């Protein structure tokens, strides 16, 4: 055998270059440390998201099908009281709202009352009489709603508390009523965890065997279906 054929045989016997295991990852990142970190990130964010999504999924089904399935969340408990305030009359609405918050442990800000009267003048025996000024406000939390009103001329305070049942509490929690900045931060954390879980899941999914094009086709079809379904419900169409 000639010397010229030896290099050719060596080249032909050389092992083919290893196929990339994770097509979406650069080759320098396909190492044990980074892959271990990627899998742990995916697992922990998935666990955090799953705990929250169990609650959101249950309350979402409760809200979406409560009318069709006749789901009874339980009657709320209502308590009311009306009394003459013995202290110095409040100077403005903000002062009355601050007193309600301090006296009854309310952390929420005052909102407009649903039952606030809009009549400024009334007619009695043919005479136009100015209606007494009344300050109405509403404090809404996930577990209860507190309606408060105050008549400055009579120094009269009226309070009504509506306590939700446990299922009603979960429903209000799903809607984010009365949660404030805590709920916003929680949803931001869930959104961030979902993004990390999705990105890490895509990178890990790239290693899986099977018809990836079929999976992408199903995802694309689902996205189109959701888009068209939402379009039929919009006012005026898309």
From TrEMBL:
It holds the Pfam family PepSY_TM_like_2. Keywords: Membrane, Transmembrane, Transmembrane helix. The chain crosses the membrane at residues 43-63, 181-206, 212-235. It comes from the Bacteria. InterPro entries: PepSY_TM-like_2. PANTHER family: INNER MEMBRANE PROTEIN WITH PEPSY TM HELIX. This is PepSY-associated TM helix domain-containing protein. It comes from Parvularcula maris.
């Amino acid at each position: 055998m000639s010397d010229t054929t030896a290099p050719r045989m060596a080249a032909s016997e050389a092992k083919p270059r290893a196929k990339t295991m994770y097509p979406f990852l650069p080759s320098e990142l396909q190492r044990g440390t980074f892959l271990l970190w990627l899998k742990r990130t995916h697992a922990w964010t998935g666990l955090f998201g799953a705990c929250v999504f169990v609650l959101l999924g249950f309350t979402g089904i409760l809200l979406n099908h409560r009318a069709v399935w006749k789901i009874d969340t339980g009657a709320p408990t209502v308590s009311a009281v009306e009394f003459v305030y013995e202290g110095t009359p409040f100077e403005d609405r903000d002062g009355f709202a601050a007193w309600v918050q301090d006296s009854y442990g309310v952390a929420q800000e005052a909102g407009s009352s649903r039952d606030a009267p809009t009549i400024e003048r009334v007619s009695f025996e043919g005479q136009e009489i100015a209606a007494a000024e009344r300050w109405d406000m509403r404090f809404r939390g996930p577990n209860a709603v507190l309606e408060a009103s105050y008549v400055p001329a009579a120094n009269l305070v009226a309070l009504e508390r509506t306590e939700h049942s446990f299922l009603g509490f979960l429903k209000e929690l799903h809607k984010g009523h009365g949660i404030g900045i805590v709920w916003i931060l929680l949803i931001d954390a869930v959104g961030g965890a979902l993004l990390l879980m999705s990105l890490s899941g895509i990178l890990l999914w790239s290693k899986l065997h099977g018809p990836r094009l079929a999976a992408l086709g199903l995802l694309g079809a689902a996205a189109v279906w959701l888009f068209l379904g939402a379009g039929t419900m919009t006012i005026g169409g898309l």
